[in-house]
Design a protein that fits this description.
With about 425 residues, this protein is an alpha/beta fold. The protein is about 35% helix and about 20% strand. The protein has three domains: about 1-25 and about 120-295, Alpha-Beta Barrel (TIM Barrel); about 35-115, Beta Barrel (M1 Pyruvate Kinase, Domain 3), CATH 2.40.33; about 305-430, 3-Layer(aba) Sandwich (Pyruvate Kinase, Chain: A, domain 1), CATH 3.40.1380. The chain contains 16 helices and 20 strands.
Amino acid sequence: TLVGRIRTVEKAVGRPIGILADLQGPKLRVGKFANGKETLTLGQTFTLDDNPEPGNSTRVYLPHPEILRSVEAGHRLLIDDGKLELKAVKSDGKAIVCTVVAGTGISDKKGVSLPDTDLPVGALTEKDRRDLDAVLATGVDWVALSFVQRPEDLAEARKIARGRALIMAKIEKPQAVARLAEIIELSDALMVARGDLGVEMPLEAVPGIQKQITRAARRAGKPVVIATQMLESMITAPVPTRAEVSDVSIAVFEGADAIMLSAESAAGAYPVEAVAMMNRIASKVETDPTYAGIINAQRSEPEATGADAISLAAREIAETLKLSAIISYTASGTTGLRAARERPQVPIVALSPIVNTARRLSLLWGTHCVVSPDAIDLDDMVDRACRIALDEGFGKPGDRVIITAGVPLRTPGSTNMLRIAYVGSDVQARG
């Protein structure tokens, strides 16, 4: 299986690799046409109805009664990723009479998007439920939920997952943007899915929405992924356009935790080159002299908890004393999440005795994950942290690191300790 192959690579490279499974979500499509396709005219009347007969130039079957019942006069229906725009004139629950507003071509089984309609359907279809059971059985770390409209959409996926994987909400509908704060609260991470978002909302609004979602996720301390068409031209070309390079760099400057390739690596002619290019762009941005200032300007105030205060202090101490790394012991992943939320200008090394936790944390901004057995006591924890920092290339003998952990050890979510230690030396300074 693909998951098995990834785990083989994980073992070969010697570091945890997180796996994200992307569920398809509800796909709404028109039926078939007698001639396979039709050319409409602007301003004409066109009807979508519950008649399963093949369509023609005046009507087509819409096998989704929930749409027929929900669309109201004035609502837009976008066909084939917006290539054809219809506007509902009237609807009686069995047929939607529309006017052709833009575009003229329509053909069999094209997708339907409804930017103005709140559909009474969940984000999980029967196929999604089967797929979710299957991917959970393979041991994936994250599950991305497509076409989330409301916070309740996350509840069913979380109930099925039962903690076996974390849930990422894909923001690709106007209804999700409108209820973003509630969705963030119930999700483990967010994805800015710009493809469908750009169909259902004006294209010119997407960059601002991307920034809004990224900042909201950062304020909440939740990972955020920017996806879709980042290096689209590399599906067929060995190098990206200048605009694509700029697009990727903007996502990095905004402080996204991850940037994602889709067709470029899944079906493109230059998958390795696309990944290498994405990595080069991100690495270059992170060495830009303006990068730290931009990231710091977007930082939010920590919550009034001891654990958040510890994470903030770790960042400030690391940057003030020019330490080589922040080392976070984390069983549940909470300490690693809090460290990444602060966007420190030094690497974060997340040490966890639980391989699943380390895999999940591999998504986080600036975080290098290492699976390490539980420390016996505090001294063993410090020695282990310094040794791993040295072995993993995050410090050389004489460098200092700052360690965050929860005491007593092995108590999830109890981050309450800071300690400064010297790499490759028995001399330790307490902090």
